[in-house]
Design a protein that fits this description.
The structure is a single chain. The strands form 4 sheets. Strands 1, 6, 7, 10 and 11 form a 5-stranded antiparallel beta sheet that branches. It contains 9 helices and 16 strands. It is about 25% helix and about 30% strand. It folds into 2 domains: about 70 residues, 2-Layer Sandwich (Dna Ligase, domain 1); about 230 residues, D-amino Acid Aminotransferase, Chain A, domain 1 (2-Layer Sandwich), CATH 3.30.470.20.
């Protein structure tokens, strides 16, 4: 094909199933002894067993549509009766269409979430900075889920000892597992983790970077990214010494009023010229008659550095106050829950 000479960073179709099918990912973890929540997969064929399995678990109950459901296919339900109704709606009534023709039910892991990012060339790997993102629209992690309202890196509760466990128990067996299963995989592995006590468990894999995690992780990498990608394409990642910005990065997302529900587009954005000492990542924006206007729910992300979460976040809020568009909303508590861990480091 015309594109055969183009280098690309990304997995094969088989590798992409790690994100595309919850059941496939769970089976992969089981095969390679990667710690994750106990689970079973149900479809129309074995639907009867789903109630019995729910009976055997403690509340809350985690139900995940097997396929891609635009980030909305995971339900966490406290009440057993409601969980049984939900599994019936997902499988028998195809609540999420084809995506929920099979459903993974798993035990609930009680802990604190974070994301670890790896780039692999198929043999070697480099661990990139970890991050914690904030999915809910409301402060204090309330309200509807969104694509992400902000992120912090590094994550102060993920100390050196914990990250060693992540590497030994999760990263190494994941990369070796891809090799053992003969899955072609060059690119990013985004590992969604739960820290339960001091132990890491995998919640999910994504086969790409995330948004807003990318905006908080990549600015902390001092290396030339192109060189990292080039080496990933030629199985030479073992040549790379990753150099990191030691300071804390905080990313905050400005969204259109009404998001993640319905919102208006085409609102004039002003004040971008006066923003300083921070990175502005445009998302739902476009140029109209030489002006920037809104064109999506998540409009832009701002990333600032600081010697602490507070310092970085305050810089973001200062810069954010210079940018205006009608209905602008952002969370003012990104990273607040992590400040207590900073003192202990």
């Amino acid at each position: 094909s015309q594109l055969s000479h183009v280098k690309f960073v990304g997995p094969s179709a088989e590798g992409a199933k790690l994100e595309g099918s919850k059941d496939y990912a769970k089976q992969f973890m089981l095969r390679h002894n990667i710690p994750t929540a106990e689970y079973k997969t149900f479809s129309k064929d074995n639907f009867e067993g789903s109630y019995t399995f729910l009976d055997s678990l403690k509340s809350p109950y985690v139900l995940k549509a097997d396929g891609l459901a635009a980030g909305k296919g995971v339900l966490i339900i406290d009440d057993l009766k409601e969980a049984k109704t939900a599994i019936s709606e997902m499988i028998q009534k195809q609540k999420f269409g084809e995506a929920s023709s099979s459903v993974v039910i798993e035990e609930f892991l009680d802990g604190i979430e974070l994301s670890v990012f790896v780039i692999t060339d198929g043999e070697n790997y480099v661990i990139l900075p970890e991050a914690k993102d904030y999915k809910r629209i409301g402060e204090g992690d309330t309200g509807l889920n969104t694509g992400g309202m902000g992120a912090v890196s590094p994550v102060p509760f993920a100390n050196h000892q914990f990250l060693r466990k992540v590497e030994d128990r999760i990263v190494v067996p994941t990369v070796k597992g891809l090799q053992k299963d003969k899955i072609d995989y060059i690119g990013f592995i985004f590992i969604g983790l739960m820290k339960v006590g001091n132990d890491p468990y995998v919640i999910e894999y994504n086969v790409r970077m995330g948004d807003p995690e990318t905006e908080v992780v990549l600015p902390r990498i001092k290396n030339d990214l192109l060189e990292i990608f080039d080496k990933a394409c030629s199985a030479r990642l073992d040549d790379i010494q990753i150099e990191l910005e030691k300071r804390t990065a905080v990313t905050i997302m400005a969204v259109s009023g009404g998001y993640p529900g319905s919102y208006e587009k085409g609102r004039l954005i002003t004040g971008l010229d006066s923003v300083e000492n921070c990175l502005v990542f445009h998302a739902g924006t476009k140029i109209k008659e030489n002006n920037s206007v809104t064109s999506g729910g998540r409009v832009m992300a701002l990333t600032c550095f600081g010697d602490s979460i507070n310092e970085a976040a305050n810089s973001c809020y200062t810069e954010m106050s210079k940018i205006n568009f009608e209905g602008k909303y952002f969370r003012r508590d990104i990273g607040k829950d992590l400040i207590e861990f900073e003192e202990k480091v």
